[in-house]
Amino acid sequence: MNNPNTEYLIIDKSILPEYFDLVLKAKSLVEDEDVSVSLACKQTGISRSTFYKYKDKIYRSSESYGKKSIISFKLADSPGVLSSVVQEIYSCGGNIITINSGLPIKGITFTTLVIDVSTLKIELTELVRHLKMVDNVKSVNIVAVE
Fold first, then answer.
1. Which option is the CATH number for 68-145: 3.40.50.360, 1.20.1250.20, 3.40.640.10, 3.30.70.260?
2. For residues 12 and 5, what is the distance between their CA atoms, to the nearest angstrom?
């Protein structure tokens, strides 16, 4: 279970002890090549206690880090509005990962999109400007960028 007070850092691995990289190699052997923990530790030259102590604390950085954005919308309850928003995102090079849209209340639908922005042809702020110009889009806000 993750501790809510845990802090994460991005660190150049050259300043870390070598055994951290060896734990990652052992994890890869266990997870990707179905090697036993004992054999993975023997092959990488680390003790089992080192493996178990750090295996749930060390992860490789994902290629997709910094490539996703959560954007919230207030949309008029009108046919085709969400479709127009989706089309605008695709035309700008974005890729939608998830869509969460609530029931309309007083003619307004609140919608949240998680978008892969790694392939955008324009800046994220420019995408927001484009989305605000779509008919029946009442507001657009960037909630988070990872």
1. 3.30.70.260
2. 23
